[in-house]
Amino acid sequence: MEILKQIIKSSSFIKFERLIQSNRVSHCFLISSEDEEYNKQFCRAVILRLACNKKNAQDESNVPCFSCDNCLKILYSFHPDILVYPQKNTFLVEDSESILKNIAIKPMLMKYKIFIINNMDKSTNQAQNKILKILEDAPKNVIFLLNTTDVNNVLQTIISRTQIFNLEPLKVDEMSKILTDKIGSVNHIAIKLGKGWLGKTLALVGDKTLSEYDFVLNLLINMKSSKNIIDFVGKFSQKESFMIRLNILQEILEKILHAHFLISDDEKIQSLTKTFNVDCIYEILNLIVLSKRQFNANVSTVLITDYLLFKILEVKYICSLKK
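Above: the chain's sequence. Below: its structure in token form.
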């Protein structure tokens, strides 16, 4: 529930609220962001706002109460006027046919009957073409909430019949409250790397992210000669998590940079200010940017890692000479 509460406070939802307040609710929205989970939860927040039958007299924005009959049925996913598709993994022609059957049934508990179609970009062209006629002839009391992580994979004929609504990332304080509710603490690394996207941040939370952080931090502390590079290059260059390690390396270096100007509570970070001066940090940060470009150009991660670690070792040596 905390996820929904924070989404409702977000800048994206406030913009959507203005559409509601000004009676500009389209019969069909295409909710778009790069984060699949965020899209789904945003749609849930929208239907809570539209369905809630209790108005908080002290809240002019009509924030849902989370406790009325409509809200509870939505939270527990059994509201008769809310239908969520696809029924399996991908939106298929059968889903379009199911919508066609259900669309004629009038809403039972609320003003609207709402159809949510998740991951529209992953649906088949046949299913999209099948739903097209339904979107054109939908009754006035029906709202479609489609969502996508890639608008380019949605047929132009579908897009032309929808109102596109682009989501903005959640803010740090919003993600912090979500993580505190979810895991009992704030994982700053996950928030930093997730860049405000709900699903990506939640995926980064856990032992794997923390172990990756410890690995990269250990590399910066203990890599003291070319022989040590062999100890680190194998794991660092693993392709499936290569960008995560680069981002963590960037995050740690930025922390060291800040510690040069404001003493850090993290003793390891503070101790690394003696190893890396400000100029050296900027040089490595530039190397990380280069490494990311090389990765996107399909250069071997082993070659990228070899070069990056040797340069970090060289920078550490130069810093030691300047002491």
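Residues 2-168 form a domain with the Rossmann fold fold (CATH 3.40.50.300).
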